[in-house]
Amino acid sequence: MASQNQNQQDEMAIDKVNSQLTAAGDKIANNKKIIIWIVGAILIVAVFILSYLFIYRNPRNEKAFEAYNKVELQSFASDSIAAEQYKQVADQYKGADAGKLAALSAGISLYSEGKYAEAAEYLGRFSSDDPILNANALVLAGDCYVNLKKYDEALDAYGKAIRKADGNSQIVPRVLLKEANIYDEQKKFDKALECYTSIKNDYPQFQLGNGMDIDGYIARENARLAK
Q1: Neighbours of 19 (CB within 10 A)
Q2: What is the DSSP string of 106-136?
């Protein structure tokens, strides 16, 4: 019976994570300045969490997951309350698997609040063996730096995300678009052109979804360089 109750709690925790991350993704997507999550990211998060729920062994990890699951099972009135709860777990269990997950959740909640510097700090604590999940966390960290106008730090995070994504056809071209936007802001039109050309050559099936095709961006950058 105890095992059955534990399994039910694990399933509830996973469902709650999916619900909260989906809501966070919706809020972020509504920010026209950036594009954060990709199709399937939420499913990857769920699989990642599911695996950890069943493989932690040592007492500290067990306590960390108990604390994390307790937070996950709560209903929060605001992102601010959620962030504080996740931060407590992340701070108490630094380095533990559940502590890393709590840092990711804290980063998402803090981003939703517009607390970009703090969000970047907690996102920086997250790591996993899943390259796609790692890449998405780095993308969100990069978006934090963009909002802070720390463009070099953003480019560094985006570069790491591209390396982690290892040619993923959804993540890499979206990150290249983000990099191009920064280069345009910095008047480095040759660098922006490289990003758009890479999308055209390496990811021809990628859809921009804004009514403008990649050739239009390439033509724009060439025109800027010709001036």
Answers
A1: 12
A2: HHHHHHHHT-HHHHHHHHTT---S-HHHHHH
pLDDT tens sequence across 179-203: 999 999 999 999 999 999 999 999 9
Closest CA to 39 of 143, 171, 178: 171
Residues with Cβ within 8 Å of 89's Cβ and at least 6 positions away in sequence, in order, are: 64, 67, 68, 71, 98, 99, 102
Q: What is the CB-side half-sphere exposure of residue 97 using CA atoms within 13 A?
A: 22
Tokens for 188, please give them. Answer: 């480095």
Is the C-alpha dihedral spanning 44, 107, 156, 92 positive or negative?
negative
Phi, psi of 8 (to 5 degrees): -65, -40
Predicted confidence (pLDDT) per residue in 10-41, tens digit:
444 444 444 444 444 444 444 444 434 443 44
- The tokens describing 28, both together, are 């972020």
pTM of the model: 0.70
